[in-house]
């Protein structure tokens, strides 16, 4: 029995010595730092400085004044079913209204980009004469009139980047005038702030 105890003691002592030795050996092993990678210098990107645009607010008084001026610039004289004016009518309308339209565009430069010139084409409620192959609705005729007006102004040196052509068809006749009256075939201009 004493031999068994001696063997067990010897084994315990050997295990203890071994564990102490391994523990100190682990501490003595030098840990190498991981190899350092040399970072490549990337070219520095210089971001252009953003210049803050001042926030513009809509000048409601100016918009109202411009709309009063634009009432005089209504383009009339479209024949039933037609979307353009005759060359003589064009020249007459331009001579009366081109400088007015240019001054309105100039006035909008200090306004936010949401301020636009709405170019609205209108139609009378009279049906267009029937053509053999061409059929045009009031809606289409009104829109084509508005687009024609914008193009006419562009061809005559007006910056039309803020112009928006829309159709009001026959839904907005002139007051106190029969909706079938030819004077309803027109293009109106107005400044709108969206």
Describe the structure using short key phrases.
194 residues; alpha+beta; 60s Ribosomal Protein L30, Chain: A; 4-stranded mixed beta sheet; 4 strands; elongated
Please render the helix and strand layout as text.
Elements: H1 2-28, H2 60-70, E1 75-76, H3 87-107, E2 115-122, H4 138-155, E3 163-169, E4 186-193
Task: Tell me the span between the first and last alpha carbons.
Answer: 104 Å
User: Runs with pLDDT <50, length 5+?
Assistant: none
* Mean model confidence by pLDDT: 79
Largest β sheet strand count, sense and barrel closure: 4 strands, mixed
Number of strands: 4
Please report the first level of CATH classification, the CATH class of the domain at 67-193.
Alpha Beta
| Form type | elongated
The strand order across the widest sheet is 1-4-2-3
Sequence of secondary-structure elements: HHEHEHEE
Structural class: alpha+beta
Proportion of beta-strand residues: 5-15%
Percent in helix:
25-40%
